[in-house]
Amino acid sequence: MSKKATIISAISALILVVGLGIGLQLVSHPVRLANKAATGSGTAIFKLVPGSTSIWTPSVQSIAGVLNTNVPMLGYQVLVNFTYTTATPPASLAGTSVTTSEPSLNCLTNRISIDTTAKKYTLIISCGTLLTNPPTTYTTNGLDKTVFTFNLNSAVAGTLTYAFDNANSYVTSATDASDILAIPAGGTYTIQSDTTAPATISNLAAGNPALQSINLTWTAPADTGLTGKASSYDIRYSTTTITAANFSTAPAVASPPTPGAAGASESFTITGLSPATTYFFAIKSADSSGNISAISNVPSATTINQGSLIFNLKFQGVSASLTGKTVNITLQQGATVKYTFNNVVVAATNGVYSATIPNIDAGTYDVYLKGPASLRKKTAGITIASGSNTSNWPSTPPTLLAGDINQDNKIDLLDYSQLVLKFNPGVAQTAVEDLNFDGKVDLLDYSLLALNFNPGVSGD
Whole-model pTM? Predict the structure, then answer.
């Protein structure tokens, strides 16, 4: 580069630096033309959005500074005072970050300060463009444009009444002195402290009892606070009735659901309960301000008293472990039939077939088993206790005697006749007459029937 070019570049850089300093000083100090001060009307318009609002403690309200101008400008300054009358500031604004949102403007000052003696916050924003040749200008082209935002964090009940300091709010024109900044008169942010609890739940219901669980249903309550709904539930249960006095000492549900919108249908299942036990239930709700509702109505429900029948058996003449075999089961108390289960599939292990039947009321039963072509077998005095998988089934599996082909609970000539009709040792077939389940009706099946042949004696 030549010596002349170097000198020209240095001078240009110096001019840019000086211009930048002058331009920034224009918008960082209230040095301006007198007729630039804000008034009730003008071509450049500034406002806060929302202009006035009510918010609940504790919550955050975002406030936007909105500028609208269709004239070219070099910068602007806005100063707003927020005054309060309460002993304690009703909101947290001091030190709150003011976020500028317009990259075309350079903001030297954007801050909020508090004066507790004067009971006011002061917001000052001072932004402008860099001086260039020709000058860089800024306009929103007649549209509302957010140029900064800040958060109003509510603390206690009170009001923040704001007004613009017109003497220190202005625009700096790029061309002349005609663009006066128009600013609204001001506004009020009302901060309401929520001291009202959510509505009392009055339709709590307990139902669908199981062995160790009961389902609760209710309607989500309304609340007057920030969200209009409760923020948490406190659900209690006990084997004695629950009152407002003993609510806090009753066992609490570990993980209650999160409240839905007011009026929503709520449901929750309490587990880990004891069988055959009556429980009482109650619920309270709280809002985000910590207000707690009164106790709900107190319904009750009783868990069921049931257990499971675990049984096993053998089929006479069958040593293999086959799949798909079924039995019919009847449970009686005296002469009263309490349960009948047909075609219960039994699983086999080493020739012993077994199954589990749940949801049987606790008690003592005579259990009757019957296979596809066997006499009915009675096992007396089986006790079903509360809880899962409990019974006193014999340690030696009962054996179902084969040969009752016509299912009349006797082995007689009728059964013999049916077997003779199907007898064909050389042909594979699936038939009830195949007493040993080997896929053929042959001498082995005949032998089983003959062994148990006794027309005058029934099963059981």
Answer: 0.56
